[in-house]
Amino acid sequence: MTPPITKGGTKLSTFYEVAEKKLQVLANGSVTTPKGFTAGGMHCGIKRKRKDLGWLYSEVPAEAAGVYTTNLFQAAPLIVTKESVAKEGKLQGIIVNSGKANTCTGEQGMLDAYEMRSQFTKAIGIKEHYAAVVSTGLIGDLLPMYKINSGITQIPDAMTSNAPTDFEKAILTTDTFTKNVAVQLEINGKQISIGGVAKGSGMIHPNMATMLGFITTDANIHHQDLHQALKEITNETFNCISVDGDSSTNDMVLAMANGLAGNEPLTKDHVDWSTFVDGLKFVCESLSKQIARDGEGATKLVEVQVNGVASDQAARNIAKTVISSNLVKTAIHGEDPNWGRIVVAVGYSGETLDPHQLTVAIGSVKVVNQGLPLSFNEEEAKKELEKEHVTLYIDFHQGNGKGNAWGCDLSYEYVRINASYRT
Amino acid sequence: MTPPITKGGTKLSTFYEVAEKKLQVLANGSVTTPKGFTAGGMHCGIKRKRKDLGWLYSEVPAEAAGVYTTNLFQAAPLIVTKESVAKEGKLQGIIVNSGKANTCTGEQGMLDAYEMRSQFTKAIGIKEHYAAVVSTGLIGDLLPMYKINSGITQIPDAMTSNAPTDFEKAILTTDTFTKNVAVQLEINGKQISIGGVAKGSGMIHPNMATMLGFITTDANIHHQDLHQALKEITNETFNCISVDGDSSTNDMVLAMANGLAGNEPLTKDHVDWSTFVDGLKFVCESLSKQIARDGEGATKLVEVQVNGVASDQAARNIAKTVISSNLVKTAIHGEDPNWGRIVVAVGYSGETLDPHQLTVAIGSVKVVNQGLPLSFNEEEAKKELEKEHVTLYIDFHQGNGKGNAWGCDLSYEYVRINASYRT
C-alpha cells in the first residue's frame, strides 16, 4: 500500500510534494519570469474581439527543443517550426495566432506559415530560422494574412513593454482561463528560473483540440540535453492528458533556454541535473493539470494515480484509460462513487495483472480491496467527489511502476460547447 | 472512389445491400424463428418492476459457440458459461438475469453462478453443462439468489408458451428498446433460419456497459465451424461497436445451432458456406446497429464506412477511432458539418497513410478531397446530419481494405443518464 491511499487528502501527487521542497514556486510566474524573455499579445482581427496574436522573445538566441504531435495531419506552422528548430537547435522568437489552425490548407497554408515567420523575423530583427510559428483554432480555413501581417508590424513597438498575460490570452481558443507557472531553483549556486504557459481546453485525450505549451528558462543547457529532458517529461505530463497518437494536428510543446543565468552547462552528468529535471517536470505537470482542469465544461480536475504495477508505462496506460472513460467521467460529474466503472476501465486497459490484487480508493475512501468491493461510507466517498479536485488511487501491489494521468468530469456543458462550436 | 461516396443515400452498407439479395429478412424475427427454440422472460424481483429473468431453450442439444469479453475482470457467470461450452461444445438452454452483473463478487459470486446453472438445468431437465448462465447490471452486488431460484421454479410452466419478446425484455438494463432480427436462407435446397437478440445501450466503445448477443439457428453445423464463423463475424460487427480490450466484464455473444433444418453439415467446403456466413453476418450487423442506435441518450445512429486503405483491420481501426471521438459525436449531435474533427480523428488512428489522398463525405456531401477541404453546400450537409441515420464515408484510395463501425451521437441526455445511474 502506498501512502496516498491511507493518507488521502487533496495533494496532487507524491512527486509534487517532494519537488516543492527543492523548488520555489513563484506567485504570478510566467514565461517571462526567467531572465531575458519578453512576451505580449494583441487583437489583430482573426477573432471577433479577443486577443489572437501573441509573441515570445528572448534577448539572445536560446537553445531550443520541441515535441510535436504525431497526428497524420500536421499543421503547416508545425512543419515550419520543426524546420526552424532542426536547423541550429536555436530559437529567439515565437509567433502564435489563435482562431485559425492553418491545417488542411495545402500549399497556400505552407506559404502563409513561411510568410508569417518571415514577416515576424524581419519585424523584430532576428534570423528567419530562429523563429517558431504556431497556429491554433478552426481547421481548414486559410489564415487572413493581411490581418496577421498588419498585427506583426505593431509588434516592435509593443515589445518595449513586457506583457506576459497578454501573451497567455492571445493563444487561447475555448479555454476559460490562462495557464501559467514559474519556479526558481539553484544550479551551481546560481539562481535559475523555469517558466511556462499553456493553452488547451478541448476534450484532450482521448480526442483532441490543440494543446500548446511554451517553456522558457534562463538556464544554460545544450538543445540536445534540453530535448531529451523535455521529451521524457512530456511523456509523463502533457502526454498523460493529450496522448501520443491521439493528438491534434497542431499540438506542440516548445522550450527555450537562453543561458542568461550563467550556470555551468547542464548535462546528465551535472550534479544538479535532477534538480533541473524536477523543476522542468514541475512546470510541465502544473500546466498539464491546468489544462485538464479547464477541460470544456469541466467542473472538476480529476487525477488518477496508479501504483504497484510492472512498469511506469503500464501505470500511465491504466491511469489514462481510467481518466478517458466517459462512464467514469460522468459518474464523477454526478458525484456518484460508482467504483464498478473504475474497475471495468482498469480491466480493459489491456495490461496483464492479477485482478485479485486490486485496491481502489476515491480520495481517502478505500472502495475496493483485493479486487472485491468494501463496504464503505457512501457519504464520505461522496464528499471526496464533491471536491473540486478529485483523486482516484489504483494499486495492484505487484511492482514498482507508477504513473499519473489528469482529466476532468464530463458535463452537460461539454456537450453544449461541442455541439455548437463551429456554427 | 468507391460507389457509396458519389452515390450517397441512406443505405447502411454495401454488404447489407448484397446480402439482402440472398436472404429474406423476416418481420418480427427473433431467436425463436429457427425451428425448435422457445424463449420467455419474467419479473423475479431483482429490478423493481421490469422483467429481469429470461430463458432460451432448444428442444434438442445444440452445437454452441461463444465469444467472450477480454476484460481483466471476468464476471462469475461468464466463467461458468465458458466451462459449459468448453465441455462438449453444446448448449440446450440459456438463463439470463438483468439488474445485477455478478462481477467482483468473489467466491460467493462463483457459487451463485453455479447454483443458478444447477437450479435452471434441474428445473427444465437438461444436463448441467448444457446450460449457459448470463448476468448483466450493476457490478459488485451479490445476486439475490432466493428471488432467482424462486423465478426459476416457474420456468417449466412458463415454457409451455413461447414468448420471445419477454426474453428480449428480460435481458435489458438501460436499453430503451428490444433488439431482434431473423433471416431465412437456403442451404442444400433446405430452408434454414438464423435469429438473434441483443442487449446493450451503454456508451459501448470506447467504454462499456454490458453487450450481450444470443444467436440461434436450425442449421446443421459443428460447433468448431460455428465458432470460427462467429469469431470472425464478431470482429467485423459487435467488436466494431464494443471493441476487444475495451469491453465490459460481462460481454458475450453465444450462438446455438440445433440442426433441425436437416441440411448437410455446414463446413468451409460446403457449397453454401458463404451464404450461411453472410446470413450470420447480417444478423450480427443488424444487432450491432440496433445497439449503437440505442446508445444512452443517442438521437441518431452513426455509421462510419472506411475504404481504400491497406487492410480491413486498418479500415476498422480508423472507423472505430472516428466513431469514438467525443468531438465528432457532439458535432453530429449539434448537426454541425465540422469535418475538421473527422480529419483529426482519422489522423490519430495510428494508421500510416498518405494524408493527401483522403476523401471525406457526410452522407452524399463530399467535404474533403485529396486531404483538402471542398467548398460544399452547408445546408445540404446539415440535412445529412439531421437524418436519424448519419453515414460518414472515409476513403484513402490506397488499397482494398474496407471496414465499418457504428455508434451514436453524444447528447446532454447521455450525461444525465450516466451522472445518475447508480444512486
UniProtKB/TrEMBL annotation, chains A, B:
Family matches, as InterPro entries: Arg_biosynth_ArgJ, ArgJ-like_dom_sf, ArgJ_beta_C
Keywords attached to this entry: Acyltransferase, Amino-acid biosynthesis, Arginine biosynthesis, Autocatalytic cleavage, Cytoplasm, Multifunctional enzyme, Transferase
Active site residues of this protein: 210
Species name: Salinibacillus xinjiangensis
Function: Catalyzes two activities which are involved in the cyclic version of arginine biosynthesis: the synthesis of N-acetylglutamate from glutamate and acetyl-CoA as the acetyl donor, and of ornithine by transacetylation between N(2)-acetylornithine and glutamate.
Site feature: Cleavage: 209-210
PANTHER family named among the record's database cross-references: ARGININE BIOSYNTHESIS BIFUNCTIONAL PROTEIN ARGJ, ARGININE BIOSYNTHESIS BIFUNCTIONAL PROTEIN ARGJ, MITOCHONDRIAL
Residues that coordinate or bind substrate: 173, 199, 210, 296, 418, 423
Enzyme class: transferase
GO biological process, one term: L-arginine biosynthetic process
Domain of life: Bacteria
Catalyzed chemical reaction(s): L-glutamate + acetyl-CoA = N-acetyl-L-glutamate + CoA + H(+); N(2)-acetyl-L-ornithine + L-glutamate = N-acetyl-L-glutamate + L-ornithine
Subcellular location: Cytoplasm
UniProt site (Involved in the stabilization of negative charge on the oxyanion by the formation of the oxyanion hole): 136-137
Ion transport as UniProt keyword: no
CDD domains attached to this UniProt entry: OAT
Family: Belongs to the ArgJ family.
Signal peptide: none
Annotated protein name in UniProt: Arginine biosynthesis bifunctional protein ArgJ
CC terms in the record's Gene Ontology section: cytoplasm
